[in-house]
Amino acid sequence: LGKPDIAATGVSFVYADLGIELVIRDEKVYSIHCVHHINGAPAVKACKYQTSEGIGIDSTESEIISAYGEPSKRSKGALSYNKLGMRFELDSGQVSLIQLLKPW
């Protein structure tokens, strides 16, 4: 990916043109975020990448459930699929962040 556009105190690296944020813990990649925007970083473009099932930024909750079934956990504004290592945050009913983690 090269040098990040933003390095936030060594715990996350933002690639603004790609809409990607890498979160680092214990000197390893902890999670990868495909984002619509990042508060305080107006230059970040919306991520254009999608999951293998075609879910991306601005997909709807019903599209997520159609693609992956019922989530492992539902919280206010988020759907988690623990065994897949994916979490989708929703804003006004549309995906605003896709978080990829180690499955749990």
Main beta-sheet strand count, sense and barrel state: 8 strands, antiparallel
What is the H/E string?
EEEEHEEEE
Average of per-residue pLDDT values: 90
Instruction: Assess the beta-strand content as a share of residues.
Output: 35-45%
Oligomeric form? single chain
Helix content: under 10%
What is the overall number of helices?
A: 1
- Low-confidence stretches are none
**How are the strands of the biggest sheet laid out side by side?**
1-2-3-4-8-7-6-5
Structure class? mainly beta
Domain module tally: 1
Shape: globular
Q: Quick one: how many beta strands? A: 8
Rg over alpha carbons: 14 Å
Distance between the termini: 26 Å
How does the SSE layout of this entry go?
Elements: E1 6-8, E2 12-15, E3 20-25, E4 28-35, H1 61-68, E5 73-75, E6 78-81, E7 86-91, E8 94-100
Antiparallel strand pairs: 1-2, 2-3, 3-4, 4-8, 5-6, 6-7, 7-8
